[in-house]
């Protein structure tokens, strides 16, 4: 029976009566998490029309873990465009920058890397060490000022990356609203953040992201080699992961249209089951996005 359901062609659910669109599966999946006590927020925008297709509490501010690193990349890219410093300029890592978890530079022998390469490491692996080195170079105040100049009132990078957070540290690395984050990625895709060159550079860095474990897990892309796209699908995204936090923000290009999206869930990370329920709900949003961006895609992954 399961095999028959998988193989049976299905009409994409987003093409409703009169051509209306709906994300009922996404709403149900996130609603179930909220019913269990999680805080959920989501926003989806059609890039061509600018229409908001789907939203769930998209103006509330939630922790977004590493998503705030995008704001750092924007500031660094803007400075490269303005030639405030060179992309080939070499920055050293120091013991004060040292940090564990995500990233590969901490495992490399190279004591120094060019600025542009640090942007690449952050885009590809959310590199914590590269983040702290760049933040030491440009400063948190500059990143905050840049975010404010873009009109972001609910989205901010609050601190450097830390292994532990004490009472005098910011409680989160970053926070954001999905409405602002979906808008931000739509603007980056259109080349409207600072200027075309700055936006394209940031999108280039983020196009290397290897974490497709959340919303993007529904797109069938190769995590290590998807920059050129496949089967008419192309993705640029950034994820944020922390204890009790999962966030995924990006732009999905499909044969039918393109969408920007942002999904954040804050949940009680008390068991593997709770974590897997969160990931599955975010994947459900990804399936809806894929169906919308690719009108002829069927729900072949249904179980």
Q: In terms of per-residue confidence, which ranges show pLDDT below 50 for 5 or more consecutive residues?
A: 1-20, 298-303
Q: Give the proportion of residues in helices.
A: 25-40%
Query: What is the level 1 CATH name?
Result: Alpha Beta
Main beta sheet, described? Answer: 5 strands, antiparallel
Quaternary state, please? Answer: single chain
- Beta content comes to 15-25%
Radius of gyration: 19 Å
CATH architecture: 3-Layer(aba) Sandwich
Count the DSSP helices.
9
Give me the side-by-side strand order of the main sheet.
Answer: 2-1-10-9-8
**Number of structurally distinct domains:** 1
Global outline: globular
Number of strands: 10
Mean pLDDT: 89
């Amino acid at each position: 029976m399961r095999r028959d359901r998988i193989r049976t062609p299905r009409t994409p659910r987003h093409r409703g009566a009169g051509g209306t669109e709906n994300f009922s599966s996404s709403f149900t999946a996130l609603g179930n998490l909220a019913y269990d006590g999680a805080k959920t927020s989501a926003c989806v925008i059609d890039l061509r029309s600018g229409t908001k297709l789907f939203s769930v509490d998209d103006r509330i501010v939630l922790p977004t873990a590493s998503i705030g690193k995008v704001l750092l990349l924007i500031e660094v890219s803007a400075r490269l465009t303005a030639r405030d410093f060179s992309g080939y300029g070499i920055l050293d890592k120091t013991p004060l920058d040292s940090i564990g978890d995500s990233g590969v530079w901490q495992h490399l022998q190279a004591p120094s890397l060019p600025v542009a390469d640090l942007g690449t490491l952050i885009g590809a692996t959310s590199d914590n060490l590269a983040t702290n080195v760049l933040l030491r170079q440009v400063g948190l105040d500059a990143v905050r000022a840049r975010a404010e100049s873009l009109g972001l009132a609910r989205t901010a990078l609050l601190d450097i990356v830390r292994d532990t957070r004490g009472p005098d540290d910011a409680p989160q690395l970053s926070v954001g609203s999905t409405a602002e984050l979906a808008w931000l990625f739509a603007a980056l895709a259109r080349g409207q953040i600072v200027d075309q060159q700055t936006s394209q550079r940031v999108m280039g860095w983020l196009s290397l992201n290897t974490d497709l474990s959340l919303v993007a897990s529904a797109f069938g892309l190769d995590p290590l080699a998807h920059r050129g796209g496949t089967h008419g699908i192309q993705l640029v995204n950034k994820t944020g992961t922390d204890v009790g936090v999962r966030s995924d923000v990006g732009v999905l290009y499909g044969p039918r249209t393109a969408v920007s999206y942002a999904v954040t869930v804050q949940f009680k990370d008390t068991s593997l089951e709770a974590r897997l329920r969160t990931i599955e709900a975010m994947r459900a949003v990804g399936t809806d996005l894929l169906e919308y961006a690719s009108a002829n895609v069927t729900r072949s992954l249904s179980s």
